[in-house]
Design brief:
ten-stranded antiparallel beta sheet; 1 helix
């Protein structure tokens, strides 16, 4: 499966898998918890191609998942990364055998104690849609499998007015990339600002809250959407 411009993200996860055993001692010493993972399963489908009634084909599929889970809980940084290499082997149609990369990661860094934080996340997986518009699974044959890469970076400022109230100001920048697909998905980026002011412990019986949000999403085809 082509990785082209999304390849760097998946490649980072792919490198972690064979090196997990070698770096485990060092990772634990540095505050990381590393857990290699492996699973194998057998799947049977009586309609592997999501065909109309009367045109179904059944199939046996063997699935092998190899992965690694990394966790870190530091004094100022919390981080999580899950990577899976998913392989599918079809018993009757070996030409459909395929391998998929899946990555899910996020982190929070405390830049200024109790005041300024930086949240970040990245995700790489597959969106599946059949040619008839029905939603399927990766195991289905003849569906539109589209690799999707998403990332977000979001600084957050928090201020507490003693027991009276707590304020939060968050800015988020999101980006979504699609591989080429029959569904003609469009890459996009979104910028969002959200401000909240919520009552503190002083208002234990009757609480209150104020919020403001503005979101602008721009698509690579030139269109845009704004919410406020």
């Amino acid at each position: 499966m082509s990785l082209n411009r999304l390849g760097w993200a998946v490649a980072a996860g792919f490198v972690l898998l064979p090196l997990s055993a070698a770096v485990m001692a060092q990772a634990e010493y540095a505050g990381w918890a590393v857990t290699p993972q492996v699973s194998i399963s057998q799947i049977y489908s009586d309609n592997i191609g999501l065909a109309p009634r009367g045109e179904e084909d059944d199939e046996f599929v063997t699935e092998l998942d190899l992965g690694v889970a990394l966790r870190r809980e530091g004094s100022r940084t919390r981080a999580r990364l899950d990577y899976t290499l998913r392989g599918l082997a079809y018993w009757s149609d070996s030409d459909s055998n395929d391998v998929f990369h899946q990555l899910d990661a996020d982190s929070r860094t405390n830049l200024v104690p109790e005041r300024l934080f930086l949240d970040a996340s990245a995700n790489y997986d597959q969106r599946v849609r059949s040619t008839s518009g029905r939603t399927g699974d990766l195991v289905n044959i003849g569906v539109d499998r589209t690799d999707v890469f998403r990332f977000r970076i979001s600084p957050v400022y928090v201020h507490r007015f003693e027991d009276v109230a707590a304020a939060e100001l968050r800015y988020s920048h999101d980006r979504v990339y699609y591989e080429e697909s029959d569904a003609r998905d469009i890459d996009s980026e979104r910028n969002r600002v959200r401000a909240t002011l919520d009552s503190g412990p002083m208002f234990s019986r009757v609480g209150w809250g104020l919020s403001f949000e503005r979101s602008e999403e721009d698509f690579d085809d030139g269109s845009s959407v704004t919410f406020q």
